[in-house]
Specification:
This protein is α/β, with parallel strands linked by helices. The chain folds into 2 domains: 199 residues, Alpha-Beta Complex (2-enoyl-CoA Hydratase, Chain A, domain 1); 47 residues, Lyase 2-enoyl-coa Hydratase, Chain  A, domain 2, CATH 1.10.12. The chain contains 11 helices and 9 strands. A 6-stranded mixed β-sheet has the order 1-2-3-4-6-9, sandwiched between helices. Strands 5-7-8 form a 3-stranded mixed β-sheet. The longest helix is centred in the middle third of the chain and has 20 residues. The radius of gyration is 20 Å and the shape is globular. The two termini are 35 Å apart. GO terms for molecular function: enoyl-CoA hydratase activity. May play a role in fatty acid biosynthesis and insulin sensitivity. Keywords: Fatty acid metabolism, Lipid metabolism, Lyase, Transit peptide. Belongs to the enoyl-CoA hydratase/isomerase family. Pfam families: ECH_1.
């Protein structure tokens, strides 16, 4: 049984966290598999959208606390192992927005600590209406400082800080209201609704979506004037694309575009 499974549905790839016994924790092995899978998808032009989901009772419960505790046996008390772990996890979280394809989190059950960070790192998220979201490390004495990075870039800062210091969980509806997820659906519709959203995006011009996703994350960290200058140049790049020219012509001529990408 693979720890991380990949299921392709046409131009949509579904990555499935498949470690239900530890609630799909981001163990060393899981992080390694995610790193490899994302690297492969980065080069795969047949895939236009990626879905990230999980098996069992939870989407992802965060880091593997048993592995972290075992690392304390090292002479340095685990300092080097912890630094390496958080660095590897940060690289995975950054690889998701850097991926050319949009990534949709399909969330059921619990998304806690680094699992909530994983949802926040995705470009979009669809949640079952019974899903719960938390950065609850503070409840065991470990402030969720690295999950805070992605979370505080998704929801308003006061709500993010409250979650971090209280350890309280968000309902799926509250997560949608705050902007952590896009859509909330019935549990038995979660897979179908997420796939429908993925297929809607996959039907768009792939090169335009790739250009647009990169520009989205580039500009969001820039001052206003720099963001406009950058995205203006990106729009020029997009306009000079042969398929964009064809798409505009097809719209004006009221016909289906003949896209090559």
């Amino acid at each position: 049984m693979a720890l991380l499974e990949r299921e392709d549905h046409g131009a949509v790839a579904r990555l499935v966290l498949n470690s239900p016994n530890n609630l799909n924790a981001l163990s060393d092995a899981m992080l390694a598999d995610l790193t490899a899978a994302l690297a492969a998808l980065e080069q795969d032009r047949t895939i236009r959208v990626v879905i990230l989901s999980g098996t069992g009772r939870a989407f992802c419960a965060g880091h593997d606390l048993k592995e972290m505790t075992a690392a304390r046996a090292a002479p340095d008390g685990g300092a080097a192992a912890f630094a390496d772990l958080f660095d590897r996890c940060a690289r995975v979280m950054q690889a998701i927005p850097a991926l050319p394809q949009p990534v949709i989190a399909e969330v059921h059950g619990l998304a806690t600590a680094a699992g909530c960070q994983l949802v926040a790192s995705c470009d979009m998220a669809v949640a079952a209406d019974d899903a719960r979201f938390g950065v609850n490390g503070v409840n065991i004495g470990l402030f969720c400082s690295t999950p805070m990075v992605a979370l505080s870039r998704n929801i308003p800062r006061k709500q993010a800080f409250e979650m971090l210091v209280t350890g309280d969980f968000l309902t799926a509806d509250r997560a949608r209201d705050l902007g952590l997820v896009n859509r909330v659906v019935a549990p038995d519709q979660l897979g179908a609704e997420t796939l429908a959203l993925a297929e809607q995006v996959a039907a768009k011009l792939g090169s335009a979506v790739r250009i647009g996703k990169r520009a989205f994350y580039d500009q969001i960290e820039m001052p206003l004037a720099a963001a406009y200058a950058h995205t203006g140049a990106v729009m020029v790049e997009n306009m000079l694309n042969r398929d964009t020219e064809e798409g505009i012509s097809a719209f004006l001529e009221k016909r289906t575009p003949d896209w090559t990408q």
